[in-house]
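We emphasize that the prediction below concerns an isolated chain of 220 residues; any contacts that depend on oligomerization or on bound cofactors are therefore not represented. The input was used exactly as deposited, without trimming of termini.
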Amino acid sequence: MVSFKAASLLACSAVSGVLAIPATLLPRQSITSSTTGTNNGYYYSVYIEENTGATYTNGAAGEYTLDWSSSAVDVVAGKGWATGSDRTITYSANGFTPSGDSLLSVYGWTTSPLHEYYIIETYGSYNPGSAGTHVGTVTSDGSTYDIYTNTRTNAPSIQGTQTFVQFLSIRQSKRTSGTVTTANHFNAWAKLGLTLGTFNYQIMAIEGYESSGSATVTVS
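Result of the prediction step, given as a token string:
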């Protein structure tokens, strides 16, 4: 997870950045292989490592459903915005009771400098920060979040194979619905010298690594 256990998660971001021109899909159309696109005014990104074992379905507005199994190996999918910002994000993830290694997070990338970032609201059997470096905490939206960094060397990214640092905020009081004030995290990271660059995409994502689960997520 979070590229600490395998490089496949980062491949998701690389795929999202280089796929063909996104297509606008009809509501409720199911997706079973890696792609990006727009739907009902929202951007979405889907990565399914084995192109089997997972189904992503766009719903109305900012809603999507993801069903996945371990045969997908690594799946990362979500809906949000083609360009990130310090927006306040409201979300719910109905039925998010996954088996094994998985997480629910605000997820995105920046460039110049290149960074991959997570604001993790809940996770399964594997703590995404366990292989990183703990650098501080931030209190936001009713909980303390632990802040971690992890350097990825010659790893896939939205700019091809690169060396870059991941930033993570991991919520101590897990939840599956609420509001994420992203500016609180970005400001806390900056005070620790963790400076983001120019925003690329930003989504409310589910990730599952060799796990299974199902959830319907709504983001706005």
